[in-house]
Amino acid sequence: MSNNLIEMDKRHFIHPTSSIQQQQKNGAKVIMEEGDGIYLKDITGKWYLDAVSSLWNVNIGHGREELAKAAAEQMKKMAFSSAFSTFSHEPAIRLAEKIASLTPEGLNAVFFTSGGSESNDSAVKLVRHYWKIQNRSERRKIISLKRGYHGVAAASTSVTGIPEFWGMAGHMMTDFIHVDTHYNSTTDQAIASLRQAIEESGPETVAAFFAEPIQGAGGVLIPPDDYFPRIRALCDDYGILFVADEVITGFGRTGKMFGIENWDVIPDVMTFAKGVTSGYFPLGGVVVSETIHNVFKEKSLGTLFHGFTYSGHPTGAAVALKNIEIMEQGQLVENSRLMGNRLLLGLKKVKESLEIVGDVRFVGLLGAVELVEEPVSNKRFAQDQHVTLKAIEALHERGVICRGVTYDNTDIICIAPPLIINQEQVDQLVEGVYEAILKVQQQLGI
Ligand code: PLP
């Protein structure tokens, strides 16, 4: 059974974000078949603690009967019906209203998509549309952060600030600019980099600035506390829209409903996906401010020529509503904050008894552990030592799934377990991380 599946996988399945060569040589390393709470089981019967919520998305954990039931009920009643033009349906209306009630003040109108990339592509088009219908079509440039990840569709690949992702398209689209992130730099430097890009581009040509409240795929990079307030002020000074990509940080991940709320900043636009359905259905969206919505209403040139077949999918909307209800009833946003604090404390203790742990950081249940050759000077390992790979493998052996980030000569272990994690499970995770890093140290002869 297992060999058969591996052969079929090699022959027919092109994996997302994979080395096809490696896949052909080694085959799939793990084939999952079942999920329960924070755990996943593969086809050999081995259980894993899913410490990155699969793709940072399974916020309420695996195997939730209630979501299966919500999907089945909606599918039986009306699996799908269009939300195009003048058509609508109750699940999408209710979900839009629910999301508007959760987002910061003034963000009240929602455009639905099927995921994060579509959401960011839609946001690029919507902000340009906003300027165009006010006769400001020269405002079309999009500025975003280096090490930012915003997806892989045409525009979202270009918003992404990790050059590896631009390769397949041959180049980035024009009018996308990347500026220094706050990682390993001061707020002053990061703000100066944005200001310089705006000035050099011509402020009147810039449509929007995009940023993740915490850069996820870039290595869980948490900004200094004054960063986003100063970003907001700078955008206001130049009349530029601020788009917060909440695809990872939304829906409780950081101990707040939305990540940007950690800094009391209100963006003009928010994009979301992942945690809105905890991965039980592909769904995402863009929330725009009342101001933007009013411009759309008053100055529309007619049809909004943008919409996906599955924008506002009724089954997806029903799943999202149930998912949010479970989050609220189980106080999972609060749990994310509490368990995130416990995880941070536990991993800081781990740092004390190991030699190669550098920065340990968490906001809610979104965090990372950096591995460095010398924690005091923050000297990094040579990349040919493959420290991250060794750590991820050691974790895997112990039945813990984390995500490694190695861009720009870093060794970062990202940790983002489902928001339902409890104290004992946090301690189990801390123990697993400790043992795995200890093994890496032994392999490195430390
Ligand atoms: N934005 C952020 C911050 C993400 O982390 C991701 C995916 O990981 C995306 C956008 C793209 O979302 P999707 O993979 O659903 O297209």
From TrEMBL:
Single GO molecular function: transaminase activity
Keywords: Aminotransferase, Pyridoxal phosphate, Transferase
Pfam family, one: Aminotran_3
Gene3D superfamilies according to UniProt: Aspartate Aminotransferase, domain 1, Type I PLP-dependent aspartate aminotransferase-like (Major domain)
Highest taxon of the lineage: Bacteria
Keyword presence, Amino-acid biosynthesis: no
Family membership noted in the UniProt record: Belongs to the class-III pyridoxal-phosphate-dependent aminotransferase family.
Protein name: Aminotransferase
Organism: Virgibacillus pantothenticus
